[in-house]
Amino acid sequence: xLFLQTAEQPNLFNFALPFLxxxxxxxxxxxxxxxxNQKKVQDMIENLKVGDKVITNSGIYGTIAGLKQDRIQLRxxxxxxxxxSRNAVSALQNPDQEQTNPS
Length: 103
Hints:
Elements: H1 12-46, E1 53-56, E2 61-67, E3 71-77, E4 80-85, E5 89-92
Antiparallel strand pairs: 1-2, 1-5, 2-3, 3-4
């Protein structure tokens, strides 16, 4: 008689719960911090002003000499200005980060 019992169908909730938990953890660990960092960088780029000392994605240190809608003019040396995209700026220089010129 035990052999004639029908097998229970698996509950969809019990099957999907581990996958939903993994997706939730992934969202909390990876996606939320990434969005938060992107928002901070975007706010920093939107609030750039002339005279700010910045670091570009390519590692160039300079001072903003001019601003346009989507571009900045970056002074990287005396009488040397480079025009580049605002999105090329990766960070503002800290006030305690002084550029040292080996002489």
